[in-house]
């Protein structure tokens, strides 16, 4: 009798776990949040300081290609109402401190 009551209690306890709602997951955003407005203000011919003022510090500056700046943005476990970036990967190329190429992937 005790064994059957123990099995019944165990089965009810384990089945109750499926009834609970999913746990809240915090959206983890990394990188530079770039809006369409900021992207539209970006122009070839701008200086490095103007780009930094407009977009902020780049997420990645390669040691072997110091003239390439990468602005990367990712969100993990995003809820439907989480603000998303208009740009996920933006690569800017400079020559002598002047922006010469804009690649938006």
From TrEMBL:
Residues 1-18 form the signal peptide. Its main location: membrane. InterPro entries: BamE, BamE-like, BamE_dom. The keyword Membrane applies. Coiled coil: none annotated. Gene3D superfamilies: 3.30.1450.10. Residues 31-99 form the Outer membrane protein assembly factor BamE domain. It is a lipid-anchor. Keywords: Cell outer membrane, Lipoprotein, Membrane, Palmitate, Signal. The keyword Signal applies. Pfam families: BamE. It is found in: Cell outer membrane. Belongs to the BamE family. Part of the outer membrane protein assembly complex, which is involved in assembly and insertion of beta-barrel proteins into the outer membrane. Part of the Bam complex. This is Outer membrane protein assembly factor BamE. The gene is bamE.
